[in-house]
Specification:
Transcription Regulator spoIIAA; 116 residues; five-stranded mixed β-sheet; alpha/beta; single chain; 4 helices
């Protein structure tokens, strides 16, 4: 059995960081979406997803992440990812997420580039 995804939110002056822990599948993806949409509705336009503690993302999780990216782009904002495993990084490249969201090696560089 896969572990349930946990999401922690760290609000910043110019955006927010979402920390995920666990498997991003349909349930985990929806948990991320709920948090991301709450932040967007509150005016957040820069979102960083730190996947350091996530080792697996399935196809449904990817599709939910794409929906989140599209909604943020529609609002004139931006989403980035950091701390991806090599497999998740390659998956994001293949699935096209890297075309719409920047991928950073670490949180420090991401925060600096995004102005968080």
């Amino acid at each position: 059995m896969t572990e349930e995804l946990k999401v922690a939110v760290d609000r910043k002056d110019n955006g927010a960081v979402l920390y995920t822990k666990g498997y991003i599948n349909n349930v985990g993806g929806e948990e991320i979406a709920v948090r991301a949409y709450e932040l967007m509705d509150a005016g957040v336009r820069t979102l960083l997803l730190n996947l350091r503690d996530t080792k697996i993302v399935n196809s449904i999780g990817i599709s939910i992440l794409i929906e989140i990216i599209e909604k943020m782009i529609d609002k004139g904002g931006k989403i980035a990812f950091c701390c991806l495993t090599p497999v998740i990084h390659k998956t994001f490249q293949i699935m096209g997420l890297a075309n719409y969201a920047t991928i950073f090696d670490n949180e420090e560089n991401a925060m600096k580039e995004l102005g968080l």
